[in-house]
Amino acid sequence: MSRELRNRRRIFSLILLLVFCCSAQVYAVQTVRVMALFPGKAMLNIDGNNRLMKVGQSSPEGVKLISADSNEAVIEVDGKRDTYTLGSVVGGNFAKPETREVKISHSPNGAFMTTGTINGRLVDMMVDTGATVVAMSEVEAKRLGIPYRLKGKPAGVSTASGFTQAYAVMLDRVKVGEIQRQNVEAMVIKGSSPIHVLLGMSFLKQVEMENQGSMLLLRSKY
Predict the structure, then answer these.
(1) Count of helix runs (H) and strand runs (E) in the chain
(2) Which CATH class is domain 32-85?
(3) pTM attached to this predicted model
(4) pLDDT tens digit string along 192-222?
């Protein structure tokens, strides 16, 4: 083989290598979604591809899982690390999703009242940190089309009027302002009380709360 031919092959190989490197640099991860979290592992959807990753592992797309537990994961992309919770969606610039906030004012009777939706239907809500779950009367449940007798689990609750029959149900969606949570535990109480839906801790524990006196600030955790 002549020296000229060998030189041509070397040049051709270098060109192929440069093309490959440039192509690799052009590709950039567009979206990462945290699908599931486990101790030491996380299920990430990276540009439409599901990746079950262990701590310390890097995906073919270049996303590295730094740490993970059942509450959050630390993800590194392009040398940038940040902490994300279940359901977080990270865009191409890998900045944290914009925090959603809702401000709820005191009503004349001193309660924090707001309007929200349950399963897409409009409802009046009263914030009640003393309620373990979201609670409503069976009158309200019927208006919202919640099949509490068919799908609910019979239970009993203690109210101001005494012990009352109720049904434990799971609400598909509860939304206050721009904050929405899915699969929220609730209780349907027999009768016409409470008048308003009680926004209890099954929803509130999933947000950050800040009492600012005459204003209650709800901030999305994720």
Answers:
(1) 4, 17
(2) mainly beta
(3) 0.57
(4) 999 999 999 999 999 999 998 889 999 987 6
